[in-house]
Automatic annotation (TrEMBL):
This protein's name: DUF2514 domain-containing protein
Keywords: Coiled coil
Organism of origin: Cupriavidus lacunae
Coiled coil: 75-109
Keyword Coiled coil: yes
Length: 136
């Protein structure tokens, strides 16, 4: 057997421990390396899916905003058309009431005599022309 000094023995033990540590690191890398690589790949895939989901969410948000503004615009147009229709109905009702009043007035007039028929028609036409001009 070889007789080694204390420093040589310490150096030999240190080298052996270093070799065992290096071997352990290499074995751990061989065992855990594929698992680590798979975990990194899964994390990258999850990050990519997250990016796609965020982009889709932003696009969806923009589309919903456009749809909401379109619906609001359509509602405003429908309300405006409803107001215009109500005003037109009110105006038509006023004109209908005036026409009914004129018809009632004509119905209440006494019948014209055949001898005075032309004067009666002339008076009636003159009255109607004046009414129409006042309406315009």
């Amino acid at each position: 057997m070889v007789n080694l000094s204390g420093a040589a023995r310490a150096a030999l033990v240190g080298a052996a421990l270093l070799a065992v540590a290096a071997l352990g690191a290499w074995l751990a890398a061989q065992y855990y390396g594929p698992q680590r690589d798979a975990a990194i790949a899964r994390a990258a895939a999850a990050q990519a899916q997250l990016g796609l989901a965020l982009a889709a969410n932003q696009q969806c948000d923009a589309d919903v905003g456009k749809a909401n503004s379109a619906v609001a615009s359509l509602k405003a147009e429908a309300d405006e058309r409803a107001r215009a229709a109500a005003a037109a109905v009110a105006q038509a009702q006023d004109r209908a009431d005036a026409a009914q009043a004129r018809a009632a007035d004509l119905a209440k007039r006494p019948p014209s005599k055949p001898a005075d028929l032309c004067a009666s028609l002339d008076d009636l036409l003159t009255t109607q022309i004046r009414v129409r001009q006042e309406e315009q």
